[in-house]
Write a structure and sequence with these properties.
This protein is of the alpha+beta class and 230 residues long. Helices cover 53% and strands 15% of the residues. The protein contains 8 helices and 5 strands, in the order ααααααβββββαα. It has a 5-stranded antiparallel beta sheet. The longest helix has 25 residues.
Length: 230
């Protein structure tokens, strides 16, 4: 049973990242005073509205889909902090230029790898639970618990980790049945960076991102194996 959980997590990551990365664009240019629970709930509602209104165009135009995700990503997802967590110990030895290049390239890779999952999102399959008391030792971090209904009728526990920034509460990690997105990618990139070096990994991600973008422009599937080094 335990062996099946990582595979289950990988299957769910596209839909869950779509939810985690999207939020109402109305908050992009104003102070975001929403609670963590409101960030998650309004994200689900906004995503459903945008996809419902433009589904046909988005299905036919992957570039437009990438643009939609990119435009509404930054207001809610702490891409830089999440990327630094994924880079882990290798960030300490890297230059600022290398760290910035990894974070930016990793973000572009995720954007193209998972953008198509936006079209499959169904907010009616997501239940957002009432907030639990925050951690008194770290009031600037919290977790929003949700449950996602699966196609087979089962459910998956999905926890969103957020931290309070100068711009409001921002998502930096997603746990699917206890499996952390950040920890999973950090483990995978750790092995590759150790073996090949950070610059080589950045170049691989850039090449993979370009391949995904080219596939989208040619009208083929934009999905790809999310495993680093695949």
């Amino acid at each position: 049973m335990m062996a099946s959980r990582p595979r289950k997590a990988r299957r769910l990551v596209p839909s869950l990242l779509a939810l985690a990365l999207l939020a109402s664009a109305t908050h992009a240019h104003a102070a975001d005073t929403r609670t963590p629970t409101e960030v998650i709930q309004e994200t689900a509602n906004a995503l459903a509205l945008r996809v419902s209104a433009d589904r046909t165009q988005l299905e036919a135009n992957p570039t437009q889909l990438y643009t939609l995700v990119d435009e509404v990503l930054l207001p809610v997802f702490d891409t830089r902090y999440a990327g630094q967590l994924v880079l882990g110990r290798h960030g300490r030895a890297a230059s600022k230029e290398q760290r910035d290049a990894f974070v930016d390239t990793y973000y572009d890779y995720l954007l193209r790898n998972y953008a198509s999952s936006v079209l499959k999102f169904d907010k009616d399959k997501v239940e957002v639970f009432p907030p639990r008391p925050g951690d008194p030792n770290d009031p600037k971090r919290t977790v929003v618990r949700t449950s996602m209904l699966l196609d087979d009728g089962g459910t998956a526990a999905v926890d969103y980790s957020l931290r309070l920034t100068d711009d409001g509460w921002r998502i930096f990690d997603v746990r699917i049945d206890g499996i952390s997105y950040v920890q999973t990618y950090r483990s995978q990139f750790d092995s590759e960076i150790s073996a090949r070096g950070l610059d080589a990994v950045i170049e691989r991600l850039r090449a993979e991102t370009e391949r995904l973008g080219t596939a989208g422009r040619e009208g083929t599937s934009t999905s790809a194996n999310p495993e680093p080094g695949a």
